[in-house]
Structure to design on (365 residues):
């Protein structure tokens, strides 16, 4: 199989991984909504059999319903933003938005590993030009590697900061030392013009992003 | 269903709280746990008939928890409940001793049916073991 096919497959796998995680979250919200609906139905049945309907209780249940609808809405919004990252192959990328989104996408991975995930963003906007999907993919893979190697109960920090015309993203908290950059990660680093190096004993991985990633010049995509 | 003791295990505490309330209203004795480790502790301390177990949880997942629970009590009936359902995972869980497998969001009546079936299966297992014990005693005495 060629490197291009490998990367295509890795891209699909990334999309699948994210979608599976998000549908799981949505199903959890739906399961809660179903129980809330069932509880309201139970209360209605009890009231119909000569009992009373406690207005405060109903209000409280409505509040719980609202929390779950907002939660599901935020999850769907995240999936929607992610899905639109393949709309164009090259554009100006808002790195604060991208890093925050990848952090949100990887949250369930961190929770399953019992690792706290902190995202640190600069106060001011920071942008580079390139392919948003490739950049999200490389950040997600490096974050996944860091979470996997972090100690259970530990904290992984994803920190974005400006660096010359580009930016730096630090992945702090890897507990098991350095992992070789190979396969999809290596291809993605080449395609995005980024470099990834471990610092110190290997507990921090630093991704350096150029201001303009390799590839065709930007077109106006609005 | 008054005698059934059920443990619901899920890291979604809002879900366990709601399901617990609705099952309790239907006469079951229900307790909840928010993790696999918590479920193992509660099963070791109490006498549960059926565990309704989420597949994906922080730390110890549903499959690992299922294995620990079945090692502790081979009569314990475990129904896996998950938002991450695939046929392969279901088959794998059944091979490891799960009594049943249900996808989220589930109908309460379907879950209640599976709890009843699981409880009946537990009673049959106990009865078969007791019958075998009696048979063995009778054989050893030459009767």
């Amino acid at each position: 199989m060629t490197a291009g096919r490998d990367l295509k497959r890795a891209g699909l796998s990334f999309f699948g991984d994210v979608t599976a995680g998000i549908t799981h979250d949505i199903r959890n919200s739906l399961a809660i909504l179903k129980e809330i609906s069932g509880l309201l139905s139970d209360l209605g049945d009890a009231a119909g059999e000569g009992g009373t309907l406690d207005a405060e209780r109903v209000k409280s249940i409505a509040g719980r319903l609202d929390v779950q609808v907002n939660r599901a809405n935020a999850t769907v919004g995240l999936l929607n933003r992610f899905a639109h990252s393949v709309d164009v192959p090259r554009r100006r990328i808002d790195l604060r938005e991208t890093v925050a989104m990848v952090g949100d996408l990887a949250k369930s991975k961190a929770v399953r590993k019992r690792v706290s995930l902190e995202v640190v963003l600069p106060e001011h906007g920071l942008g580079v030009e390139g392919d948003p999907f490739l950049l999200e993919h490389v950040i997600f893979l490096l974050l996944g590697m860091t979470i996997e190697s972090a100690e259970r109960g530990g904290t992984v920090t994803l920190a974005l900061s400006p660096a010359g015309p580009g930016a730096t993203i630090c992945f702090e908290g890897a507990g098991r030392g350095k992992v070789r950059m190979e396969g999809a990660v290596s291809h993605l680093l080449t395609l995005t013009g980024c470099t990834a190096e471990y610092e110190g004993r290997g507990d921090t991985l630093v991704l350096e992003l150029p201001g303009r990633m390799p590839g065709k010049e930007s077109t106006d995509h609005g | 269903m008054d005698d059934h003791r059920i443990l619901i295990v899920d890291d979604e505490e809002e879900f366990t709280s709601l399901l617990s309330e609705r099952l309790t209203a239907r006469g079951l004795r229900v307790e909840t746990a928010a993790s696999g480790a918590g479920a193992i502790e509660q099963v070791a301390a109490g006498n549960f008939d059926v565990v309704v177990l989420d597949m994906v949880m922080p730390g110890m997942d549903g499959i690992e928890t299922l294995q620990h629970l079945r090692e502790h009590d081979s009569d314990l009936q475990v129904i896996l409940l998950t938002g991450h359902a695939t046929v392969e995972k279901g088959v794998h869980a059944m091979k490891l001793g799960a009594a049943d497998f249900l996808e989220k969001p589930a109908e309460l009546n379907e879950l209640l049916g599976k709890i009843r079936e699981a409880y009946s299966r537990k009673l049959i297992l106990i009865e078969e073991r007791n019958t075998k014990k009696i048979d063995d005693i009778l054989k050893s005495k030459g009767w």
User: Anything to note?
Assistant: Residues 88 and 94 of chain B are 10 Å apart (CA to CA).
